[in-house]
């Protein structure tokens, strides 16, 4: 995450902009928990729930102040962080897109 965004920032022209979208704290926890429970059930996995692979990284950026601080560590010193409130319906297609396009696919 650090290297990818840092590399993107280095490629932006002076005065240019980079846009990022981050799920806010807690936004995906229920979905990830249900998904993990179902995978364990079908895999006959009796191990306790594991922490999602992205958990440590996302905790560094899932609040406005922590995102602003992290951006400074990757070279963004003049940042504007906005919190938007969106409700995205959990359709079957959206659920699979979330699994296939995230760290959940490795569970």
Commentary on this structure:
The model has no long low-confidence stretch (mean pLDDT 83). This protein is mainly alpha-helical. The chain has five helices and no strands.
Q: What is the average of the pLDDT values? A: 83
Secondary-structure-based class equals: mainly alpha
Tell me the Rg in angstroms. 16 Å
DSSP helical segment count:
5
**Unreliable stretches, pLDDT < 50, 5 or more residues?**
none
Instruction: Please provide the count of β strands.
Output: 0
* SSE series: HHHHH
Helix coverage percent = 40-55%
Please outline the helices and strands.
Elements: H1 2-11, H2 29-42, H3 55-59, H4 64-73, H5 92-100
What tags apply to this protein structure?
107 residues; mainly alpha; 5 helices
In brief:
The protein has 107 residues and is mainly alpha-helical. The chain is built from five helices and no strands.
